[in-house]
């Protein structure tokens, strides 16, 4: 296959992660469009790429670009992804796919009608032991499910002097912590368990009422106390779900939990066994068994399900993590463009599903009532 030409829109932390994954997957990173022509030039220089695009128009009219990676703040996802799809480009769009359900619906419908590959980086699906958990549940090792529970905790917004575009609903969307990271957890456990959430009862809390002025950086940069601004998006959230099959689930999310940097954790308990996974200790899957027995499945290419082996690119004990998940996701997206059908590739349909859940979670938090997800 000829080398894919790609462009990245957005030059923050996650844009750099996409660039690295694209290079490792064998693509040519043609250029970058950042928040201003000046920033595009700076990013193009530091990334060593040929083009510093002025805007999305220049990106989509570059005939050598076949794939556009949308890595902007959330409120721009719809416009950027739509422009790229309408120009016939394949798209990887960061999550949340859009800041409203309507926008996510429009993007999923557009991608489907154009027959283009359009994916969303729900990258935690690419931890090999996550694949192992999914395979074991699919082959009935856990039996009927009894309970799904877990949390996704971070601490990068613990300091009230810290701020970020995600905090501002005009840039990040109405929901912050739930849409940003709760969305990952929901995508992951629905995909692993094979069960879909049918209803939700959720609550949000903004525990830090004022923060320093938004710095424009991807991650928080403390600012002077004199520039404090009121905050309306949630710092923490709790949600109870019931799946269509009747299984109860609970989730706690936070971006203000000291010492928890990126701790996505879940446990799925069935009639015959349980599995538990911690993203910060991603080489191991805990398997709980009856009669005081437990096992640890260790990631590696030599054992376990086909998918687990395929994604174990390093020998056991040579730690894989977030970066390898991203690399595998981007490589699978490119394989799909070449006509393959990689297992578990998260598409705009999954981005739309996530937008549906976020929309219903917000509705439930507002109404303080159990709400149907559909
Ligand atoms: C910040 O909360 C963030 O970068 C998320 O936006 C990512 O989706 C998550 O993978 C890590 O944390």
Automatic annotation (TrEMBL):
<dbReference type="Pfam" id="PF01408">
    <property type="entry name" value="GFO_IDH_MocA"/>
</dbReference>
<dbReference type="Pfam" id="PF22725">
    <property type="entry name" value="GFO_IDH_MocA_C3"/>
</dbReference>
<feature type="domain" description="Gfo/Idh/MocA-like oxidoreductase N-terminal">
    <location>
        <begin position="5"/>
        <end position="120"/>
    </location>
</feature>
<dbReference type="InterPro" id="IPR036291">
    <property type="entry name" value="NAD(P)-bd_dom_sf"/>
</dbReference>
<keyword id="KW-0560">Oxidoreductase</keyword>
<dbReference type="InterPro" id="IPR055170">
    <property type="entry name" value="GFO_IDH_MocA-like_dom"/>
</dbReference>
<dbReference type="InterPro" id="IPR050463">
    <property type="entry name" value="Gfo/Idh/MocA_oxidrdct_glycsds"/>
</dbReference>
<protein>
    <submittedName>
        <fullName>Gfo/Idh/MocA family protein</fullName>
    </submittedName>
</protein>
<dbReference type="InterPro" id="IPR000683">
    <property type="entry name" value="Gfo/Idh/MocA-like_OxRdtase_N"/>
</dbReference>
<feature type="domain" description="GFO/IDH/MocA-like oxidoreductase">
    <location>
        <begin position="130"/>
        <end position="275"/>
    </location>
</feature>
């Amino acid at each position: 296959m000829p080398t894919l030409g790609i462009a990245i829109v957005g030059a923050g932390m996650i844009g750099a992660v996409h660039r690295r994954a694209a290079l490792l997957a064998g693509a040519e990173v043609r250029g970058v469009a950042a928040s201003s022509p000046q920033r595009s030039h700076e990013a193009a220089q530091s990334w060593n790429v040929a083009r510093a695009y002025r805007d999305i128009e220049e990106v989509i009219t570059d005939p050598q670009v076949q794939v556009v990676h949308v890595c902007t703040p959330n409120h721009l996802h719809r416009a950027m992804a739509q422009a790229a799809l309408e120009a016939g480009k394949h798209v990887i769009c960061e999550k949340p796919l859009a800041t409203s359900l309507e926008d996510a619906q429009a993007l999923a419908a557009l991608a489907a009608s154009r027959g283009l590959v359009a994916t969303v980086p729900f990258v935690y699906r690419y931890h090999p032991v996550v694949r192992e958990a999914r395979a074991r549940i699919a082959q009935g090792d856990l039996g009927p499910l009894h309970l799904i529970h877990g949390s996704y905790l971070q601490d990068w917004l613990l300091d009230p002097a810290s701020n970020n575009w995600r905090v501002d609903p005009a840039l990040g969307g109405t929901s912050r912590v739930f849409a940003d990271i709760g969305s990952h957890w929901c995508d992951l456990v629905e995909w692993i368990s094979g069960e879909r959430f049918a209803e939700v009862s959720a609550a949000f809390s903004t525990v830090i009422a004022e923060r320093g002025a938004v710095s424009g950086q991807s991650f928080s940069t403390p600012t002077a106390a004199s520039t404090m601004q009121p905050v309306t998006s949630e710092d923490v959230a709790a949600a109870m779900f019931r799946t269509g099959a009747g299984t109860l689930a609970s989730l706690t999310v936070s971006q203000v939990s000291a010492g928890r940097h990126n701790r996505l954790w879940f446990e799925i308990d069935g009639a015959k066994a349980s599995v538990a996974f911690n993203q910060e200790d991603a080489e191991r899957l805990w398997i709980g068994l009856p009669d005081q027995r437990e096992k640890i499945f260790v990631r590696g290419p030599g054992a376990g399900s086909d998918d687990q082996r395929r994604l174990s690119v390093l020998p056991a004990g040579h730690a894989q993590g977030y970066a390898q998940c991203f690399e595998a996701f981007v490589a699978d997206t490119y394989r799909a463009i070449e006509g393959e059908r990689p297992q578990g590739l998260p598409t705009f349909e999954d981005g739309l599903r996530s937008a549906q859940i976020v929309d219903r979670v917000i509705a439930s938090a507002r109404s303080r009532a159990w709400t149907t997800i559909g």
